[in-house]
């Protein structure tokens, strides 16, 4: 087994915003999925699983079952690409338990690359890719200094320092004077580069630290991943760090939380994360289908494992909607105890008391969906759970589906997901857009 410390650009899972390809050929007229088209696709998918999928022991079994389902007619009545992708993805998840592994459909023809390497961004697509990242602010959602001189930075995703380095450095410089840092990953769905988490982690350590090893199936190669000795701007060391998590926290975001927790550099506040550890990328199968397939495995040098299928467990377990106020309160309590300045201590105490008084309790809310008795699974998703697709499964009833969960009071926008298909609430005529998605609108009181 070889060891390699050379940096490698890697496209990790980005559920929410990054395109399948920065540039695509024009759409072709809608095609009916013939048995020939589906057969070619299933054959290509099975081949990719057998040769590339990180879990070698499972790969053959999964491939054989998918082929068998096709041959037995399980996909015969599916004529649309999105429906087939959803059905096969559901089968892949059932067989593997791997939330990264999925089939994708594109109406546009997926461009071919010279080596179909899922780890590389084709040179001719880099400019459009860089523009997409810039327009998304390189994944940064918010930078703020909270009351009591507590820094806050939230991420929707991470990306390579090649594109984001100056922006990330500026963010850390802005927060350098704060007394504690909260990193909000509750809506962070992953990383678009293997170099992002080491770069960000480097601001939190004085000297290089061994974060994890990455084993690649293709050539049984292991590469070590360390923090950097030098990063632009000011490092953030010897000050407390808290990381906020939710079920939506996934992939590369989990990597950062897991590493900092294992190294005792940060405490995790919130809920257990989604549990997707293994990196990979999109593999082109046919003109209109690709598979996102994990092809490597991270191994933490301290725990000797990772968070695949388990998630990152919080040190302080609270509802994600209360993670920020909880972490802020903990930080203020620590600062109040540590300070020797009476005036500063009284100031922090007052801020903490105001925070406690202003934090409203969560409300219980019921969601109902009539019908759809033949559905395999139904979820409700919306602004109340950061649009996390499978965070809130509904329970089957005699006449439909129901769910009771906690949420903040106020307006919430939501949809139902029925066997992978998103719909508005058929019985709710009110609709709205919450900045991320459109959906049915309701007031929680």
TrEMBL record:
<dbReference type="InterPro" id="IPR005151">
    <property type="entry name" value="Tail-specific_protease"/>
</dbReference>
<dbReference type="GO" id="GO:0008236">
    <property type="term" value="F:serine-type peptidase activity"/>
</dbReference>
<dbReference type="InterPro" id="IPR014756">
    <property type="entry name" value="Ig_E-set"/>
</dbReference>
<feature type="signal peptide">
    <location>
        <begin position="1"/>
        <end position="22"/>
    </location>
</feature>
<dbReference type="GO" id="GO:0006508">
    <property type="term" value="P:proteolysis"/>
</dbReference>
<dbReference type="InterPro" id="IPR029045">
    <property type="entry name" value="ClpP/crotonase-like_dom_sf"/>
</dbReference>
<feature type="domain" description="Tail specific protease">
    <location>
        <begin position="126"/>
        <end position="319"/>
    </location>
</feature>
<dbReference type="Pfam" id="PF03572">
    <property type="entry name" value="Peptidase_S41"/>
</dbReference>
<keyword id="KW-0732">Signal</keyword>
<protein>
    <submittedName>
        <fullName>S41 family peptidase</fullName>
    </submittedName>
</protein>
<dbReference type="InterPro" id="IPR013783">
    <property type="entry name" value="Ig-like_fold"/>
</dbReference>
<dbReference type="Pfam" id="PF16561">
    <property type="entry name" value="AMPK1_CBM"/>
</dbReference>
<dbReference type="Pfam" id="PF11918">
    <property type="entry name" value="Peptidase_S41_N"/>
</dbReference>
<dbReference type="InterPro" id="IPR032640">
    <property type="entry name" value="AMPK1_CBM"/>
</dbReference>
